[in-house]
Amino acid sequence: MRFRNLAVAAAGMAFLAASSFAQITTIEGKVMGTDGNPIQKAVIDIVRTDIKGHYTVKTDKKGHYIYMGLPIGTYDISCVVEGKVMDKVSHVRTHPGDPIPVNFDLQHSAAAQQQQRAAMEKAMQSEQAAKDLTRGMTADQKAQVEKAMKDREAAMKHNKELNDAFNGGMAAMQAKNYADAITNFTKASEIDPKQPAVWAQLGDAYMRMAEGKTGPEFDTNIQKGTEAYGKAIELKPDDPATHNNYALALAKAKKFPECEAEFAKAAQLDSPNAGKYYYNLGAIMVNNGQTDAAATAFKKAIELTPTYADAYYQYGVTLLGKATTSADGKVVPAPGTVEAFQKYLDLDPNGKFSAEAKNMIATLGSTVKTTYENPNEEKKKRKR
Question: Has this prediction a pTM greater than 0.85?
Answer without folding.
Answer: no
